[in-house]
């Protein structure tokens, strides 16, 4: 349960949220991403209140404004890598094939554009997930333990790509992580304990 949390993430800013298991980190991210709605309080995306919107309207707005990365890649196994990247661009009306291919090149996977996710390594799948989160040029990226299932080398690669690509396009980033190396890449690090933010949030 969260209590009295106030948090702002600005364009181009990377904010890390750390804390023990059960402290509310994933709950915070789900509320900010419109995946859940708060019992009290308000959530805004780029100045527009979103927590009062219906499920479908939140999903529609989220598609064009929020990129999501999770510990599991959640790629659609029967679609190619490129087709997975095109889903958010089609939902939002922004981006497209050229943008998707550019991002695949940036994450070093353009040669895998026609491959199915099942033939990729775990690190490659997570790089695709990062590219997908940025494909529609969202205003913000919310990442829940994006390197949690990777070895150290893979985690460093994914973390570097996520932060650098988001900063390049001016997207705000909120990282929920247990990884100190990932948190060290952030502009600010907040600690969530017993539902309360410490270290720059309230």
TrEMBL record:
Keyword entries, A-Z: ATP-binding, Lipoprotein, Nucleotide-binding
Any Pfam family the entry gives: ABC_tran
Family matches, as InterPro entries: AAA+_ATPase (IPR003593), ABC_transporter-like_ATP-bd (IPR003439), ABC_transporter-like_CS (IPR017871), ABC_transpr_LolD-like (IPR015854), P-loop_NTPase (IPR027417)
Listed GO MF terms: ATP binding; ATP hydrolysis activity; transmembrane transporter activity
SUPFAM superfamilies in the record: P-loop containing nucleoside triphosphate hydrolases
Domain of life: Bacteria
Location of the ABC transporter domain: 1-202
Gene Ontology CC terms, in alphabetical order: plasma membrane
Protein family membership: Belongs to the ABC transporter superfamily.
Protein name (record): Putative Lipoprotein-releasing system ATP-binding protein lolD
Natural source organism: Deinococcus gobiensis (strain DSM 21396 / JCM 16679 / CGMCC 1.7299 / I-0)
Taxonomic placement: Bacteria, Thermotogati, Deinococcota, Deinococci, Deinococcales
